[in-house]
Design brief:
It is a single chain. The protein is mostly helical. It has one domain (about 1-115). It is built from six helices and no strands. It has helices at about 1-25, 30-45, 50-55, 60, 65-80, 85-115. Helix 2 (about 30-45) packs across helix 5 and helix 5 (about 65-80) packs antiparallel against helix 6 (about 85-115).
Length: about 120
């Protein structure tokens, strides 16, 4: 139960920071989403995000920062195996399940909602 609480608190704090960035800045929310993924990738590449994921589990790996972390970790793993091809394909391999789920869920929700535009 302690791990669930830790994940909840850390994930909540990351989401509060993102929401404050949306609410307090003039920046388009899409730009903040891209910045979040980029920040997660940079922090992962610098070796700073991995310890947070070990500490908070899903609380750190589910938000957009965690997506950037997963991309970089996949690239680093596959770069050692396949070189440049691994750098290009590793991020997609590491995030394929999440991307596929997001695409399918978006399609199913759009089909069920009967959009008018």
């Amino acid at each position: 139960m302690e791990k669930v609480a830790t994940a909840f608190v850390v994930g909540g704090l990351l989401c509060v920071i993102a929401q404050l960035a949306v609410d307090l800045s003039e920046t388009n929310p899409a730009n903040i989403m891209v910045l979040s993924v980029t920040a997660g990738a940079v922090l992962s590449g610098a070796g700073l995000y991995g310890p947070l994921v070990k500490f908070a589990g899903a609380g750190a790996s589910v938000p957009l920062l965690g997506f950037g972390h997963s991309l970089v970790q996949g690239m680093l793993q596959d770069a050692g195996k396949s070189g440049l091809v691994g750098i290009l394909s590793g991020g997609l391999r590491a995030t394929a399940v999440g991307l596929t789920t997001a695409i399918l869920a978006g399609y199913l929700i759009a089909a069920a909602a009967n959009p008018k535009g």
